[in-house]
What we know:
Oligomer: single chain
Radius of gyration: 40 Å
Order of helices and strands: HEEEEEH
Largest sheet: 5 strands, antiparallel
Amino acid sequence: MDPRIVEIEKTQVRSDLPAFSPGDTLRVRVRVSEGAKERIQAFEGICIARKGASLNETFTVRKISGGVGVERIFPVHSPSIAGLEVVRRGHVRRAKLYYLRARRGKSARVRERRWWEGGGLSPQAEAEAAAAVAAAAAELAAAEAEAEAAAQAEVEAAALAAAEAADAEVVETEAEAVEEVADVVAGTGEETEKAAE
């Protein structure tokens, strides 16, 4: 392929969509234009196929609506997709799940995958882990703030004690000076009395 076409395609590839595979339950938010208005419509179902590569890649989502199977094919990098959310991860051993078309009820279910090849947890477990990490971070921040406030209070108390000690020392020095003056005055008074005798 011409390198110029490859460069143009690179600019149109979306990187904001989560990783998903056939068997996953997806909630696709699609932009729908009705006249001058535009709204977002959610389409939730099981991804039964992924095809193609780069800009030509598509995925098929199947859901049961009113007892009737409905399938939609979405281009992965389409600007009409406002968002894509993986509701649950499915454990399947096929790349194309067309056999689900012939199944009804419980036999059309897909087993949930707890651990997936990405090395992480299911979306629900990821959300729980993220909430636990956020709670621990908030608790740590509160403890640090409390320790900082205690240290600040300790510094202020030490400064106040030092100021009080300095004031007490000044008062003692003034008292000693007054006593010395009194002694000097008393001493000169005694000398005057002795001289008068």
